[in-house]
Input
Amino acid sequence: MSVPFYEKVSVPFFAFIFFAAPALACDPALEAAVAAHPGDSDSRDALARSCARAGRAAEALAHYDALLATDAGNADWLLGRGQALLALDRPREALAPLEQGRARAPAYEDIWRAEANALDRLDEFDRADALLSQAAAQFPQSAWPRERQAALRERRLREQGTRLSADLSYEDLSGGRPPWRGASIGADFRLGEARHAYAGAHLEERFDTRDTQVLVGYADRLNAAWSYSLAADVAPDAEVLPEWSFSAEAGRPLPDAWSLGLRFRHASHAAVDVENLSASVEKYVGALSFGYSLNVAKVSDIDDPHFGHILRAARDYGDGSRVALVAGFGEEAETVAPGVVQVTDTRSVSLNGLHWTSTAWGIAWEAGWYEQGDLYDRFRVRLGFEHRF
Output
C-alpha cells in the first residue's frame, strides 16, 4: 500500500498552498499531462495542488472531485477538497470532506486545523470548542489547539456574550446650587447575529428631587445596508425626567468610509412634550472618525423649532476601546427646575471613552463642561464599568 502524502511531509503543506501568493494560472505542463492521460492520478494530484497555489480554487476543486471519484477515502484529496471549498467561501460544504478525512486519518493534523477553521467561520462555537479540545488531546505537543480555543472563546464572548453595565455620575452646578447625581444599571442581551435587546434602570437626583426610570430597547439589522433600534422608557410621576419617551434610530454605511444616522425621539414631560429629530454623518479615516449631528427640537408650547449642533472626533484602539472629544452648541430643551422645561442657548465640551482592560471587563468614563444659557454651568464626571459574560 502506498504511503499517504501527509506522512511524507513535515510542514502544513495544504495550509501553505491555499494562502501562498497567487500565480496567474495552473501549471501548463501539468495541464497538458492530465489532458493526455486523464487517469494519471499522480499528475492530476500535482495539478490540483498547482491550481491551489495559483489561487484557482474552483479548478482545484474540480480536480479533487475527479480524484475522489477514483478513491473516495484518500485523506490528502479530502483535505484538498475541503481547503478548496474554504477558499471559495463555502465553509458549510467543506465540513463533510474534512470530517470524513479526519475519520480516515486521525493523525493528520492539518485536517483538524482546516475543520476548526471551517467551524470558526460558521460561528459554530460549541462544535469548534469541542473539536479543539479533542485536538489538544490528540496532539499534546502542539500549542495551536489551546491557542485557537482561547481565541475562539474570547471572540464568542465579544460577539455573543451578555453585556452588563453600571455607572455613577456627578454634576457640580455653579452659583452654589445643589449638585446633580445619577446612577444607571443595564444589560444588553444578544439574541442572534445582529439582534439584541436592552433593559435597564436609571436614578436621577436634581433640585432636591429624585426620579426613577425604567428603560427597554431592541436593535436589529433591517437589510444588508440598514440597521435600526427602538427604545422606550417610563418614569412615573417624574419631575425632572420625562414621564415617558420613545425613540427610533436608523443608520447605514455610505461609500468612501462615510456613515449616515437618523434619530427621532418623543418625550412627554408633566407640563410639555418635546420632539427631537436629528441627522448625523460620520467619516472614518483609519482608526479615527469625525462626525457632525444636527438636532431639531420642537417643544409643544413653543411655535418655532430650535436647532443644536454636535461635533465629534474619536479614535478607536485595542479591541473595541474608544476615546472621543465632543463639542456642542445651539439651542436645547432642558429641565431647568422641577416640572419646568425651558429652551436655552447651550455650549458644551466633553471627553469620554470606553477602555477594555480584557475581553470581559471594561471601564467607561466621561468628563465635561456644560453651559445652560445664563442659568448655570455644569461640570460633569461619570465613571462606570462594562462586563461581558
